[in-house]
TrEMBL record:
The lineage of its organism: Bacteria, Bacillati, Actinomycetota, Actinomycetes, Kitasatosporales. This is Putative regulatory gene. GO terms for biological process: phosphorelay signal transduction system; regulation of DNA-templated transcription. Keywords: DNA-binding, Phosphoprotein. One of its GO terms (molecular function) is DNA binding.
């Protein structure tokens, strides 16, 4: 039996996935939750064979959570769902050894077959996505700078970013100032716009 953790922010979509997977005799959903901060604790508790994660959760860096799951639970394979593929997202996912990619518009049977392939130890990567990720030039920002910029883009202020990343507010301000300078931006929000337009966030 394949144990699946389903992390999907939209309740209706999550319900549809649950109904779909309930029809399969060899798959059992051991946990279902909104993606985000609950993801790592749920994975620790249920130790799924496959974690299916919607990475479009606003205000949370789900790829960092997935990386933590890989470090703590190396036997758990991960399948990420998203509606928009940006080269930086694909590159990061490949770097942290995500097991598979799936766009939300994929047919339902593709989700089921991909879960089975991951549980069997295979990696399910769309070739065109992988090629586009590696052919696109990398952003001029460090991973930490991108992480802070993503949180700023989600609406977090300096105190919230500092608390979330266990940094001092002064350090966060320095990062944001450096990002603004690197991108030749006028303001912090201008830097967010530039990075978003380039597909880095």
């Amino acid at each position: 039996m394949i144990k699946v953790l389903l992390a999907q922010d939209g309740r209706m979509v999550r319900g549809a996935f649950l109904a779909l997977l309930a029809q399969e005799n060899d798959i059992v959903v051991v946990a279902e939750l909104a993606a985000g901060r609950e993801l790592v604790p749920a994975a620790r508790r249920f130790e799924p064979d496959v974690a299916v994660v919607d990475i479009d959760t606003p205000g949370h860096d789900d790829l960092s959570s997935i990386q933590q799951i890989h470090e703590e639970l190396p036997q758990t394979r991960t399948l990420i769902l998203t509606s928009t593929w940006r080269p930086t997202i694909v590159r990061r996912a490949l770097d942290i050894q995500v097991g598979g990619f799936l766009v939300k518009e994929s047919p339902p049977e593709k989700l089921v077959s991909t879960i089975r392939e991951l549980a069997a130890g295979l990696r399910v990567i769309d070739f065109d996505l992988a090629v586009s990720a590696w052919q696109s030039p990398p952003p001029p920002l460090t991973e930490r700078q991108l992480e802070i910029l993503r949180l700023a883009a989600a609406g977090d202020g300096v105190p919230e970013i500092a608390a979330r990343l266990h940094l001092s507010p002064g350090t966060v301000r320095n990062y944001l100032s450096s990002v603004t300078t690197k991108l030749n931006a006028r303001t912090r929000m201008d830097a967010v716009r530039i990075a978003a337009d380039a597909g880095w966030l």
